[in-house]
Design brief:
Helix content is 65%, strand content 0%. With 316 residues, it is mainly alpha-helical. It has two domains: 151 residues; 135 residues. The two termini are 35 Å apart.
Length: 316
């Protein structure tokens, strides 16, 4: 679907982007949900809100399709870690929809056609939000989740369950491991290191190679049920890497980005050795949450200068 009415008014939306975010997080119901879940409004606005609005602007312009937003993925991972219920996520997301309508009304640009476009755009996006939220939270979308009956337990099935601790020794004893796969994990880390230090400043091609290598690493991990979370986190990382223009990254941030990659490959290398070589890890899941947290912070770094310096945003 196209958005001719919204596209006609896109300049006004772009000009009001910061004001939209500020008003969004200060809406009464949205603000209540932030307070209830101990989320700072300024934190959300700066790290998620402004990026979601900029993503929305790109969708309206036709630059990207609805739903292709790694910022939303990381935001949902953040919500999951904060244990935000889906009903509160709905209120927070709906606040942006209501705020966009109000902006168009305030400028005399609102019409039945623009409302239809907004309704379709947000309904379509929230459909994706629900699907991804269930996947991230460990529920199958096909399950009939009885939100109004919390006493009825729902079986978790996909990502980020609370796994029982399994030692590396016990895991190896109970599983047939293809040693070629483990060697390939080592080779992939070495390949990332080679790309990382090939040039003084990483190029667009370098980022593409690193993304592809992490995708391969994730694919191997996906063969092991026990390492699905780790593989999923690397898939999220690959998605983040594929969604940004690297010519917009400030030169001074390249050193931070290189340091991030060095940290990731060091963690993955140590994890591989602790699980499959030395077999001395007391919990094979020890890297799951810290890797996810690192990727979330990397996404914030990668977009900190996208479409302007957020340090100048007067959100509050």
């Amino acid at each position: 679907m196209k958005w001719p009415n919204l596209e006609t008014n896109i300049k006004q939306i772009e000009n009001d982007a910061t004001a939209i975010v500020k008003a969004w997080v200060n809406r009464e119901l949205v603000s209540e949900k932030f307070a209830l879940n101990s989320i700072g409004r300024a934190f959300f606005a700066r790290h998620f809100g402004i990026r979601v609005v900029r993503h929305l602007i790109r969708v309206i312009k036709g630059e990207i399709a609805p739903g292709q937003c790694p910022v939303v993925t990381v935001m949902l991972l953040f919500f999951k870690e904060k244990r935000i219920p889906l009903c509160d996520i709905f209120v927070i997301c709906s606040g942006l929809r209501a705020q966009l309508v109000e902006v168009l009304i305030d400028h005399g640009l609102f019409s039945k056609d623009s409302y239809r476009e907004i309704a379709y755009l947000f309904d379509k996006n929230f459909e994706g939000v629900i699907r991804e939220f269930f996947e991230i939270s460990g529920y199958s979308v096909a399950q009939k989740v009885q939100l109004e009956a919390p006493s009825a337990p729902v079986q978790k099935s996909v990502h980020f369950q609370e796994e029982p601790k399994i030692t590396a020794a016990a895991f190896l004893e109970n599983n047939d491991i293809n040693r070629d796969d483990i060697e390939e994990l080592s080779d992939l880390v070495e390949d990332v290191e080679t790309v990382l230090f090939k040039h003084e400043q990483l190029t667009q091609e370098d980022f593409g190679k690193i993304r592809a290598l992490f995708e391969k690493y994730a694919h191997i991990l996906s063969e092991f049920y026990e390492f699905k979370d780790l593989g999923y986190s690397l898939t999220v990382l690959a998605g983040v890497l594929s969604s940004y223009r690297y010519d917009t990254i400030a030169p001074e941030d390249y050193k931070k980005i290189r340091t991030f990659f060095e940290s990731i490959i060091s963690d993955l290398n140590s994890w591989r050795k602790n699980i499959f070589v030395d077999a001395d890890a007391i919990d094979i899941h020890y890297l799951d949450e810290s890797l996810l947290s690192s990727i979330a912070m990397f996404e914030v770094l990668l977009t900190s200068d996208e479409n302007g310096d957020e340090g100048d945003l007067e959100l509050f």
